[in-house]
Write a structure and sequence with these properties.
It is a single chain. This protein has two domains: 134 residues, Heme iron utilization protein-like fold (3-Layer(aba) Sandwich), CATH 3.40.1570.10; 155 residues, 3-Layer(aba) Sandwich (Heme iron utilization protein-like fold), CATH 3.40.1570. The strands form two sheets. The chain has a nine-stranded antiparallel β-sheet with strand order 1-7-8-9-2-3-15-14-13, sandwiched between helices. Strands 4-5-6-12-11-18-17-16-10 form a nine-stranded antiparallel β-sheet, with helices on both faces. The protein contains ten helices and 18 strands. The N and C termini lie far apart (70 Å). The protein is an alpha+beta fold.
Length: 348
Amino acid sequence: MTTEFDTHGQPLRARYDAYLAENPKTRIRTVAGALGVSEMELVAAGCGGIQSTLLTEPAQDIFKELGTLGTVRALTRNEWCVHERNGRYEDIRAGKSMGIVVGPDIDLRMFFTDWKYTFAVNDGGRRSIQFFDRAGMAIHKVFCLEESDLAGYQALVEKFTDADPQWPRTEPVEPAVWRDEVDQPDALREHWLGMKDTHQFFAMLKKFNVSRLAALGAVGSDLAQKVSNDVVEAMLHAVADRDISFMCFVGNHGLIQIHSGPIKKLLRTGQWFNVLEPHFNLHLDTTVIDSTWIVNKPTSEGWVTSIECYTKDGEMIAQFFGARKPGIPELTSWRELLVGYCPIPLAA
């Protein structure tokens, strides 16, 4: 009997195979863009010989049980940066609209509003759980490793397999719209200076209904200043050379993934600058960085300084802090490093 998956999947597989024949070794996300479909649709169709199984909704129910897989690799990306971190999913909290994972290795912030479909994927023996939004964009992927609990993986898949799978329907995800002009720069600066915690920053943006870049440009260069786009690569070399523990935030509209700790192995490959640790990989396309900012926020533990990279459309690519926990001041070595990149003194 012909199913919806056959009807939709067969022509997609044929188009995928034809594209790969002309463009071998192209990643599935790139192929999806070239074919004008979503990555999720290619996964659902079983393109490239993968075996995919649609799991039941909501994604939160599945996410809460990722700890049963043992040590895995968590992957989160946007168009310009890929963040991979090995570890276990611990202390998982997944509510209706928001969630958090705060283990020592896997550290995530989830925003579930647009999450929709989840697939278990077997790609030539490499097993994963892949989460997609309503438009079919990959939000987060969890890959099994040699040390993972494959019995736990199989049990999770069996528990959540959709008994009556329907071909997934995509729909657009409308991005949040923020104003690019600040009407009250003095009031914004006063609010900024009154922050006690970095997590109050987003609430401030909502209060003034402005984009991140608009706020950075209006608040004053002692609190946020633009620096050379080469600073990011210089910073990564410096933290490796000086053994500075730092935090790297990379995300999309559905999830932010965080690495904390030192790094050592760096490698430039064409347009990509890479961190290649056994437990943490970062792949950053430096050619798309349109602006780089050093940002200075007050907290109850003192000033907290970050480097933020943006595209020409104002999308954040990645964000970097000195490694710290709530209630602990910023690392002096990190602060000194960032101050050294600033042509104008920061508020202190």
